[in-house]
Design goal:
alpha+beta; 6-stranded mixed β-sheet; 3-stranded antiparallel β-sheet; about 45% helix; globular; signal; SBP; transport
Length: about 450
Amino acid sequence: MKKKLAVFLCAAMALGLTACSAEQTAQTNDASQTEMTGAESTEQSVAEGGTSEAPVELEVAFWGDKAEIEMKSALLEQYEEEHPNVTIKQTYTDGGTYQAKLQMWFSSGKAPDVLGIANDLIEPYKELGVIEDLKPYMEADGMLDGNTWEQSAVDSFTFGENIFAAPYIYKSLAVAYNKDLFDEEGIPYPSEDWTEDDLLDAARSLTKGEGTDKQWGIRMSTYPTNFYRNMFGSPAYLVEERKMNVRDNDEIKYAMQLFSDMVKEGITPNETFDSMLGSGFETGKFAMAIVAPWDMATLDSMIGDSFAWDVEVLPYNETFETPWKGYLFADGFTMTSACENKEAAWDLIKWLTASEEAQAASAAAGVPVYTPYATSDAYLNEFTTSNHYNKKVFVDMLKNSVGGQTTGVWAQINDEMNLEYQRAVAGEITIDEAIDLIDQKGTQFLESAE
């Protein structure tokens, strides 16, 4: 066991994933194996008379900008008020340094009891025994029947047979559209059953002019790099098998060709020109744009009453008979295997992720993942923006969104995919040549990381 951990950690260190030593991690892992998990821990605690009134101290770590930190801090203080026996030490930082903190905590064997986590941050730690498998807890409380969280949210934290975090909030992608521009051309608005062809036809009809005054059909920004890695269900690489999956993958080729053709046709700018524009959908120069929930407040304040707009789900692709799968940015909460108060830690996690009061407060940072609240009138009809956009769109997109990897060797592969795609867009190579290079270099990256 220690040998396996040592090999893994040395590879991780070479990739900048972690600074922990094999010996320290092995000690942490060996110690964690003596802990009870899931229902066994809960059942024994209850059998012994319960620990709900015994004093409990928990350290909880999370990240965010100023507003998000204040919101999460207030939630934890509320939990303390409702549970007088629980004392919570809060540890927080900005998102840019949180990953380094995770590495430091796990390398030192002093990780907080409860951790905020993202779906793409678990990968380096999932086999080290430092994060608790929450599946037994969820099963014991009957939370995996689809009525607590959408299955895709649970899947984003599922690795093999383990579920390493409870989903908390998420951000998915949708299409914003300028109603005024659609009205001028007499084009029907996007709808929940629109197709990829509908999107392309509208984008072509609404593209006009030249140069800096050009009106573009759609703004894709940097999102094609998220889309084509797993746009229709067959991903560019297989994480569990640690191998590439781009060669002879019709879905990957189709997606890369689609976005490349959209640039060449002139209905969307390439990444370089897009960044030079310095602005986007809010200017009125884009009939449509790929957007996320975090864009809503900014768009609302910048657009004002300049034009009418709304959002709709990503379109349906008739070739592969599936909607476009947008990238899923999922946040969750987990507990470390070394946590000494697992029952109390799980109760807090459950409250944060599956109670209406906590999820209502968390909606300021993303789309609530607790299904009964996310689909309620209380959430769908309450706005902090003056424009009452279709909130249900982002809720509906959850089931058609997929998570991804953005750390370690996977980050290297993602960068390589983007590089070769941009070369194809520029006409330097064909899509087939880009795919061959991605497969070759991706395979080399994976072999070097072994």
